[in-house]
Amino acid sequence: MPLLPYINPSNLITNFKKKKKKELKMFSHKANLLANQILVIFLIVASVQWQQAQSKKHTWQEAFKVLGIAWNRDGTLNRTIQIPMVDPTPFEDSTTPSPTVLSQDIQLSAKSNATVRLYVPANPPKNKTLPLVVYLHGGDFVLFSASTVIFHNFCNDIAEYFPAVVVSVEYRLAPENKLPAAFNDALNAIFWVRDQAKGIGGRDPWMEFANFSRVFILGSSAGANIAYHVALRAVNLDLRPLQIKGLLMNQAYFGGVRRTQSEINLKEDQYVPLYVNDVLWSLALPLNFNRDHKFCNPISGGTYHGRVYRLPKVYIKGDYGDPLVDRSILLGKFLQSHKVPVYHRFNKGGFHGIELQNKTAAQQLYNDMRLFIHDVYTNLNSGDLSNLHASF
Q: Does 22 score more than 50 pLDDT?
């Protein structure tokens, strides 16, 4: 999800960090407003750089500049774009407005540094358990964290609105940890949820609110790619007493060697330009594999095809202003051909990451996901995708 061009946002970040630590912990209107302002400024600069770059032949160096990354001598990346990260809110604080959602970071094992951020409504329903959502954030496999403010706020929103218990996975990033490292981390988080259901090693009190028979895997952008691969792995595993009831993919980050029409039409898109995508896949994929590897192209083959028909119901959301939209349409057709129930929404216009900036788009997405999770399909489209194609 290449949202962010290269700029030096140090003044904005400094002002953000000067806020009291307690204010950062709160899911508040002020924090949301500031995060949105940062994104808007990033995207304005992205638009200017995009217009300047249209007539150029693009290079790796240019892609790195747009992404705000550079190589360190040891082969790791220096990530210069720093959207603020926020601490969890594990308890109510009488000195600040009461949060509507509580959150805490949990280390999955004493033997590893793997963590999840767990969210529960501050006032959950009484005598009723909640669906459990495993969430995978975006960032092209290369950027960001579960604690990045835009994804933290997203999880706050859905935990309150659905309502649900949300497990947001802190997965390892490429190129330091190429795929399938992120898939493995997400699967380990699901194993942790299974162990919580069984009470192995004790159960976190917040997990008492979770309904382990109604588990959903949700991802945005690269997170949607991770969600898809983890769901395919899960069908061959004994996860009892967990029951994975659905998979939700928002603007999924997939690719392939052969260009789709939406990629060609929007190759100089200001949010996910094609040359940046190619560089990102080079960073994320295992060495010596191209974009038709199954980690990138979900319909190219590989060992997963025998499992596809066993997937639970799927929700797919895309926007025709996103160069990646055809990938989601192709995947939806592929799933339908394997008799997987697919519910979908493809909006005219829009862009990649629109729900992080546009409140109307965010609310539409939240509404769809809430209906899907609660098995209400009156406003969800499940029609045949065979004749659907990108249009503008």
A: no
